[in-house]
Amino acid sequence: MPPPAPPPSTLPLPREQTMPLPTRWSDADRLPQLTVSADGRDLTFHGPTGTVDEAAAARANHPIPPACGIYYYEVEILNRGRQGHISIGFSAKNVKLTRLPGWEGLSWGYHGDDGRTFADQRTGTQYGPTFTTGDRVGCGIDFAQGRAFFTKNGRFIDYVFQDLEGGPGRELYPSVGLRSTEESIRANFGQEPFQFDIVSHVQQQRNATWARIQATPFKWDTPLGGTFTVEAVDTKPKVAEAAENEESANLSARVNDLILGYLTHHGYAGTARAFKAQTQAKAAAASAAAAAITGTSSGGDNDTDTQARQRIYHAVLAGDMDHALDETRAHYPAVLDRERGLMYFKLRCRKFGEMIIEAAEVRRRQQQAQAREQLAAQRRMDEVAQGVLLEEEEEDDYQEEDSMDVDDDAMHTSTNGHAHPHSNGAATTGAVLDTAMLKGKMKATDSEMEMQRALEYGRALNVEYASDMRPEVQELFRRTSVLWAFDSPREQGGALTEYASQAARAELANELNQAILESQGKPAQPALERLYRHTEACIMTLGAIGVGAAAFADMHREFLEN
Amino acid sequence: MPPAATQAPAPQQKLVISQAEWDRRMAAAPVTKTDLNRLIMDYLVIEGYKTAAEEFSREAEISPAPDFESIQSRMNIREALQRGDVQEAIERVNDLNPEILDTNPTLYFHLQQQRLIEFIRAGRIADALQFAQTELAPRGEENPEFLSELEKTMALLAFEPAATSGTGGAAELLAPAQRSRTAGELNAAILESFSQGREAKLIGLVRLLGWGEMMLSQRADFPKLDLGPRF
């Protein structure tokens, strides 16, 4: 597939990256009359007490990311100076620093000398108490509501201002302005605990925002697929009750369809059958909702298909590639031809991999058995040498071997006449040892045969696809072949033997299931998954362009955590 | 506080997001099959699809398996209401946990109202009157909201028992949807008493989708969700 063309965006799309938060006053973005302490948190006014145009403001080093939902910082008044003309607030990037925040456009502030708030105003609006030396004033912006709020000494004052936005191109910075000699403040950008309980406040707002989102009237219009319409927001309250009934019946009918589609997609045949039966029974019981539900149950239509895909899925999951290949060939031959036999190659490559893994397993089991055997033989030799006989234990050993040994006959012929080897004393010791070695050799041959079969299969596959220069074909073959290099690829772990893992089986099983569905003209992902991903994309994008409410639509928290 | 839905769209140029870019964003959504399986299970449990939940727990190897017994008891209660057997539903809820009705006066009133509706539906007018006077009227006096509900319900007496086809406030009470509504309210209260969510998460997801698409379409042109002709 060619790389996707660059999006023809009229504005650059903001990247979803973690945005830095303000941490200190900017060294550059302030007037020289203000000094900034070494840690960047204190501001002190050194000039003479200024006129209205001789104030001095500073901005923080980073803008406030609206995606945070609610932003909050606190300021402690270290010294009210001569007049306490202190303004706490925020402003956009290029607002003049010779004026207190609130006096200029795109700046907002709460003033200590008169307790008024200013939003591009000369006289301001009555708002809260005045503040002075020793007070702690907090400034918050709630991007979900587009409003600001202030706190004094840990107490919430009120919401103020409106239509605040801080999206790309309109970034807002924490800003403080001072105007009289010796005024001095210290900011807390989260370095220390806040005086105000911002955590509970955010929690409350999050819940309120989530409730508002969930209460947004909404109707799933088209019977199947299509787009969504949101009803006019001002639904009249009296009609709303009936509409709400209809809406929720409609909604569950649609969700039932989504679920049935999902179950069918992933081959959960038994669940799909049970779910379909139960929804229909329920619908029949509540006959009003019935029409909506039975009329549109579209998934789960073809039970045989779902079951076949389920069998194939589980065969791949169990590493039984012959079964998977046979079933696929029988039910979905077209899948094997797709993309010039790519899926067919993948399945056979998997079979090759399974053969290598199996051969390695056989070899390892034998080596273990052999080691045990030799140890036991050695022990018997020692025992015989000491004249100690432990019949019972010996019997046990033999039983164990019998149950797992395919070469019983060979062994019995070789041990002919030594049914009770130990009873014959030292003479038998050599025979016991021989047996162990012989058995080891037999089994080695067995595992060699497995190896040989795998090798031949791999060679044939290689010959067949040698001229297929598709990178994924070549890479998959390499990733499979490398398994030869390991004693026990399945237990090895690490990147090289990833292909031997159960996860790799599951991945292929899913891929095959998707390919089958696509070959039937169905989408590769179930509608439910697409719906989830689409929603997430909406919310992420809303956050990135500065819609604060999106910050409180935490999908992971709401839907995936328990 | 303004409702989230009415917040003014930004007075700026709309973004245009291409299909390729949107696909990339969708692909980046951190969600797995296991996550979706759990969402499905949550729905099956909360909506009371017990057999399907049992099958799903097996087929999708969900662990830990949910409490199937509690699904069953909720379903028995819901079925009793759907049949119109309000008394049985109330008894079963009280067997489960008497606090549920004690602590939800509105729910209890709605159940009693449902009982009255069932008397009227069955044409048992004398019983209906008796029940309304002893059980419902005192509550209606306590609470103006209950009173208006009671008035609406009593207005049903003016209808012919068979004439349930009419539209409008009172006749709606006789519609099967009314039983479902009461049953849903009761189910939610029982779930809450088990400290479980009242509503299936999948429903919340669909609502969020509606909100997200609406908010974003005020600010950007982007590919709308098309679930295709079949799903």
From TrEMBL, chain A:
Which InterPro entries does its entry note?
B30.2/SPRY, B30.2/SPRY_sf, ConA-like_dom_sf, CRA_dom, CTLH/CRA, CTLH_C, LisH, SPRY_dom
One Pfam family, please name it.
SPRY
Using the record's annotation, list all stretches that form the B30.2/SPRY domain: 3-194
Query: Biased-composition ranges for Acidic residues?
Result: 391-408
Q: What is this protein called?
A: SPRY-domain-containing protein
* Compositional bias ranges of the Pro residues kind: 1-11
The protein's matches in SUPFAM superfamilies, at most eight in alphabetical order, are given as:
Concanavalin A-like lectins/glucanases
Which residue ranges traverse the bilayer?
Answer: none
Region of interest (Disordered), ranges: 1-25, 391-427
> Could you tell me which residue ranges the CTLH domain spans?
305-367
Q: Which organism is it from?
A: Exidia glandulosa HHB12029
TrEMBL record, chain B:
Source domain of life: Eukaryota
Positions of the CTLH domain: 70-127
List the InterPro entries hit by this protein, alphabetically.
CRA_dom, CTLH/CRA, CTLH_C, LisH, Ubq-SigPath_Reg
A Pfam family per the record: LisH
Q: What is the name of this protein?
A: CTLH domain-containing protein
Upper taxonomic classification of the species?
Eukaryota, Fungi, Dikarya, Basidiomycota, Agaricomycotina
